[in-house]
């Protein structure tokens, strides 16, 4: 099974990238930060002014100008509100910009993944990275990063204001620092894994539901309703266990930090009273300090509550950046092919070290010939097909086109020579035309039509309401797997490389229709070299030569008639298929 | 405190008469955690609501230099803080429990409904519709429960503060009480454009995410024949659209942030101004001035919770409506109440419309000129669509549907593998021995697939078998059908995606694996047809001829045209 074969970036790499990204737009960042700082300063004026008022009132002095102070409070509020408006806007705009850049970079890196990695990796891991990790990172960049920055700025200024009120009034705050510090460290150490597990369990649960829904008919047919219920309940139990773990963490952390918030308020009051009675501070200072300490709670709470989100974002970033770490699988040389002959000599190949699946294959494919490869499943046909298409390089031996190793050709050049179509049938979101045009973006409608006709797809595409403009793929018109295979072939007809490797490229098409398709395709591909890995014997019958692959070796090679005459394994199979006894 | 254990063993029967009734049903199912949670939320809010009052008293003590009183009120503040911390976390605990309880229960009843609908589901609902219950609706229903709890507490807190304020200073109290809701309502006009823009942004973002998975899904194609630049530039274009939509959201959002500082701030300034005058006149104490200031600031939070509650309850209602729609559907094909007599169980299965008769204990092959005909006949024989089908003297329509399913298994290529341990996924009825499974794998020529897995039969089938090739999936599905070992097995094109070598082996082994059982194979493969006991040829929906493969090849030109594709 394809496991997690894509790498994950290390911490240093994530940090370096985050730093580069942060400092990439110094002007925008500077603007956003200074606006936030100014807004924070404006927000700190009210408690100070209120402190003055309380002092004046307590002293019973008539000379405190209540109206001016109240007006000043209002004025600072207005200034703060306006600054916040622009600060939030500036930081969001910067965040969106950085975020767009991040995801675009990632998609470009995905699009540049080496061929061999793409072929080998299950799509699961990559899909998780593109959906879940991009989402998690978006949350971080959109909310966690700016909120944390703002909260940190606010905290710093509130502390600064506190120090300005009187350095001694900052002392009571220190009482709570160890409590908050230790409990938060304890929590964060466990939280990220806990939340990741929680998300994974949640995803399993929705996947399980999706499976039940998509397979509803199968569930009914096999009578496995109660099994599916058990699966659902099992998923829920796992999700609940994960939720209970993080809830347990919060059950300890939340009250601890909350008590950590209230202690400084109480300490400020008590110590303030003491200092006041000693005559070290004024009533105004104690009042302002108490309000500042209360004002510290909110931003501090925000910083702490975004911490785990930031950690999750960091983990997602590591997985996104990891895609860059996939080493390239080919080093392009300068040589260019002379001719179209495809030649495999002494080819061996192993997916796992020490387990060769191909054992010294020699095969010359003549330019313009139609070669069919048949053989039992697991014999190595598809592997050989991928080697002949230049996707993997052989472990030993060589696969060349016109005398040049396939894996030493630059990708663009390689595509001009050989292309592979497998039984995979992905339909891209977009119009039918777009789906075919991928093969050659500058093709005309006429050429698209001819390509579709060659694969027997013209009729059904025209039966659709909007013809070639019909939107297909996820969210669009449903295209059957068989029709999807036709589109894949039409794409290839347009791309028009001189050699095509078709790996079960018509397997999903009804046997009654597949043969007609193959014949009309053959007419269009006249003069092209076609290597068809086939499970239907008429494909072999219609080919120029047949290669029988068994146990990683070519056991028989020759024209259909020669092989039938030779009376080997192929002949036996053919007779049986053709209803002529064994 | 003991933890409720989830999920419920039996989620019960939901009330689907209306969305509100559904929500009520969900709430009632967890009335205790919900009630305790509401109690905790009330205490939590109250503890917060009393802090400004205590703070005011403490300041007064400070101003009057009354140390004993200061210590006393400081202790009260600390006590309120501790109560807040304890009730806060308990409230959180019960909020999480009710959230999860509601979400899990909804998943349970939805999954059970999906299995109840069975083959009817794909005809009446799109997969996305049902899956979005798991992806988003459960969150909305959970949120509705959570906010019910916090909202109730917030209402109580607002009431309490009202009483305290009016008791302390009626005019100041009135200003706060009228002013705070006014200020909260004043940001209302900003909410509508905000929600609209957020909605637009979410849609675009959803499209972008689909585009990205589209690229990943089709990466082999793109890396194989090109088109990367095209897709990269498309992605960039859409990504920039999402960015612009995000900036549009931010422009409203930032205005809202500003307004949320400005409006309460102005109110606080007004309260401070009036309060200071009152304090100077001796109508209130300096400490009470601080309390009013703190109350005006505090009230914002419960008011926001009330607004949030209105929003979340509405969304919960909408989600419950979607869930109700799914839950209130019924399966298309109903069953009878008859019983299957033992002798009928081993009798001929006859489809009156086409005349196809499946003989007991034999391997019959069905060849049709067009593939749709075979599928239609298979569906009738398995009673997935209504039809006049009899098993001996009994009509299938008279039998309970699960009895029919147990007796007749239709295995087609749309069938799915499920995620799980391979051994379990093959032996779905749980009645097979290891030998049975091995024999079925052998008959389906799937033993090599299992051998290639590092853990063999204990390997986990991931992603519903998507990691297997099409041919491998088909063989595993065949092995699964054979392991289930039903009295009557109807196989639709079971070898269409395997190579000729393998097909020949399967054809050889199938008869033996089904010896003594009734089997119908819809196929056009000569390899399989040649090994069938009897071949039935259907044209234009009716049986045209019956006989052995060779007899039909010789006698029926229509048959040989279908089977050999003009190969002659």
From TrEMBL, chain A:
Transmembrane segments: 29-49, 69-88, 149-182
Domain ABC transporter: 342-576
Membrane topology: Multi-pass membrane protein
Keywords: ATP-binding, Cell inner membrane, Cell membrane, Membrane, Nucleotide-binding, Transmembrane, Transmembrane helix, Transport
Superkingdom of this protein's organism: Bacteria
GO CC list: plasma membrane
Keyword flag Ion transport: no
Keyword Transmembrane: yes
Protein known as: Multidrug ABC transporter ATP-binding protein
Organism, as annotated: Planotetraspora kaengkrachanensis
């Amino acid at each position: 099974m394809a496991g997690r074969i894509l790498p994950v970036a290390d911490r240093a790499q994530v940090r370096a990238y985050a730093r580069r990204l942060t400092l990439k737009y110094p002007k925008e960042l500077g603007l956003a930060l200074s606006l936030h700082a100014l807004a924070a300063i404006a927000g700190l004026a009210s408690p100070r002014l209120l402190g003055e008022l309380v002092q004046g009132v307590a002293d019973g002095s008539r000379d405190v100008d209540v109206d001016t102070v109240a007006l000043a409070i209002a004025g600072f509020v207005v200034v703060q509100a306006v600054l916040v408006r622009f600060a939030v806007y500036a930081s969001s705009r910067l965040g969106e910009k950085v975020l767009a850049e991040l995801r675009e970079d990632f998609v470009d890196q995905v699009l540049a993944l080496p061929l061999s990695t793409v072929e080998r990796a299950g799509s699961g891991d990559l899909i998780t990275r593109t959906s879940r990790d991009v989402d998690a990172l978006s949350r971080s960049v959109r909310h966690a990063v700016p909120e944390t920055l703002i909260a940190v700025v606010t905290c710093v200024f509130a502390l600064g204001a506190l120090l300005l009120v009187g350095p001694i009034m900052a002392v009571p705050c220190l009482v709570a620092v160890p409590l908050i510090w230790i409990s938060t460290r304890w929590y964060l150490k466990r939280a990220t894994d806990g939340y990741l597990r929680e998300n994974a369990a949640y995803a399993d649960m929705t996947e399980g539901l999706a499976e039940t829904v998509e397979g509803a008919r199968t569930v009914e047919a096999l009578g496995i309703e109660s099994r599916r219920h058990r699966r659902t309940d099992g998923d829920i139990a796992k999700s609940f266990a994960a939720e209970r773990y993080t809830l347990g963490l919060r059950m300890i952390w939340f009250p601890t930090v909350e008590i950590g918030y209230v202690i400084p308020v109480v300490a400020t009051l008590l110590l303030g009273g003491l200092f006041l009675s000693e005559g070290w501070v004024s009533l105004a200072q104690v009042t302002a300090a108490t309000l500042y300490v209360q004002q510290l709670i909110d931003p501090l709470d925000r910083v702490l509550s975004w911490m785990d989100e930031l950690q999750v974002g960091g983990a997602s970033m590591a997985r996104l950046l990891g895609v860059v770490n996939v080493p390239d699988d080919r080093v392009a040389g300068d040589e260019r092919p002379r001719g179209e002959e495809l030649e495999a000599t002494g080819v061996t190949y192993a997916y796992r070290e020490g387990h060769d699946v191909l054992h010294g294959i020699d095969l010359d494919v003549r330019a313009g010939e139609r070669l069919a490869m048949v053989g039992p499943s697991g014999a190595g046909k598809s592997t050989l097909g991928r080697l002949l298409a230049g996707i993997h390089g052989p472990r030993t031996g060589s696969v060349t086109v016109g005398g040049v190793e396939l894996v030493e050709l630059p990708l663009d050049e390689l595509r001009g020579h050989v292309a592979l179509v497998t039984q995979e049938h992905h339909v891209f979101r977009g119009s039918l035309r777009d789906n075919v045009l991928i093969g050659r973006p500058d093709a005309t409608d006429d050429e698209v039509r001819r390509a579709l006709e060659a694969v027997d797809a013209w009729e059904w595409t025209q039966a659709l309401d909007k013809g070639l403009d019909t939107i297909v793929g996820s969210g669009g018109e449903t295209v059957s797997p068989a029709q999807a295979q036709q589109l894949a072939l039409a794409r290839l007809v347009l791309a028009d490389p001189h050699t095509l490797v078709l790996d079960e490229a018509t397997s999903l098409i009804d046997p009654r229709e597949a043969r007609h398709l193959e014949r009309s395709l053959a007419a269009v591909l006249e003069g092209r070299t076609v290597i068809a890995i086939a499970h239907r014997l008429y494909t072999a019958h219609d080919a120029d030569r047949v290669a029988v692959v068994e146990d990683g070796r070519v056991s028989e090679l020759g024209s259909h008639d020669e092989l039938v005459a030779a009376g080997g394994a192929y002949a036996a199979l053919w007779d049986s298929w053709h209803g002529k006894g064994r | 405190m003991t933890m409720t254990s989830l999920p419920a063993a039996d989620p019960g029967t939901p009330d689907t008469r209306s969305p509100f009734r559904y929500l009520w049903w969900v709430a009632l199912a967890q009335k205790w955690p919900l009630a305790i949670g509401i109690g905790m939320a009330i205490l939590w809010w109250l503890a917060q609501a009393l802090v400004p009052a205590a703070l005011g008293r403490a300041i007064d003590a400070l101003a009057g230099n009354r140390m004993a009183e200061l210590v006393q009120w400081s202790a009260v503040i600390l006590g309120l803080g501790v109560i807040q911390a304890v009730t806060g976390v308990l409230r959180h605990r019960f909020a999480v429990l009710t959230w999860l309880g509601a979400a899990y229960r909804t998943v349970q009843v939805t999954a059970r409904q999906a299995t109840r609908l069975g083959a009817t589901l794909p005809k009446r609902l799109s997969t996305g519709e049902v899956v979005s219950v798991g992806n988003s609706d459960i969150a909305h229903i959970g949120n509705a429960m959570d906010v019910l709890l916090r909202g109730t507490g917030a209402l109580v807190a607002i009431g309490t503060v009202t009483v305290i304020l009016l008791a302390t200073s009626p005019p100041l109290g009135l200003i706060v009480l009228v002013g705070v809701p006014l200020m909260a309502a004043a940001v209302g006009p900003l909410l509508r454009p905000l929600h609209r823009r957020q909605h637009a942004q979410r849609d675009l973002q959803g499209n972008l995410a689909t585009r990205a998975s589209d690229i990943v899904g089709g990466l082999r194609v793109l890396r194989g024949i090109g088109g990367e630049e095209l897709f990269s530039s498309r992605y960039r274009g859409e990504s920039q659209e999402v960015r612009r939509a995000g900036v549009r959201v931010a422009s409203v959002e930032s205005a809202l942030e500003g307004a949320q500082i400005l409006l309460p701030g102005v109110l606080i300034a007004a309260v401070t101004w009036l309060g200071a005058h009152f304090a100077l006149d001796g109508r209130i104490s300096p400490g009470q001035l601080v309390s009013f200031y703190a109350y005006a600031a505090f009230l914002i939070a419960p008011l926001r919770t009330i607004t949030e509650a209105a929003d979340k309850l509405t969304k919960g209602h909408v989600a419950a409506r979607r869930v109700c729609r799914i839950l209130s559907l019924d399966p298309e094909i109903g069953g009878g109440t008859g019983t299957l007599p033992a002798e009928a169980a081993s009798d001929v299965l006859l489809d009156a419309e086409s005349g196809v008769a499946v003989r007991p204990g034999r391997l019959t092959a069905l060849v049709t000129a067009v593939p749709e005909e075979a599928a239609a006949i298979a569906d009738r024989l398995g009673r997935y669509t209504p039809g006049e089908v009899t098993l001996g003297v009994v009509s299938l329509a008279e039998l309970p549907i699960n009895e029919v399913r147990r007796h007749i298994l239709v295995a087609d290529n749309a069938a799915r593998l499920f995620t799980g341990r391979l051994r379990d996924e093959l032996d779905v009825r749980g009645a097979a021995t290891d030998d049975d499974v091995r024999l079925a794998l052998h008959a389906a020529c799937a033993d090599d697939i299992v051998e290639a897995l590092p853990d063999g039969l204990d390997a986990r089938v991931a992603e519903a078998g998507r990691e297997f090739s099409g041919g491998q999936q088909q063989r595993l599905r065949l092995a699964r059908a054979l392991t289930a070992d039903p009295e009557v097995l109807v196989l639709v094109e079971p070898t269409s995606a395997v190579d000729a070598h393998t097909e020949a082996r399967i054809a050889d082994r199938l008869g033996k694996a089904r010896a003594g059982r009734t089997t119908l194979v819809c196929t056009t493969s000569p390899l399989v047809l040649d090994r069938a006991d009897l071949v039935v040829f259907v044209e234009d929906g009716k049986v045209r001829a019956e006989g052995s493969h060779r007899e039909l090849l010789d006698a029926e030109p229509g048959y040989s045209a279908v089977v050999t594709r003009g190969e002659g």
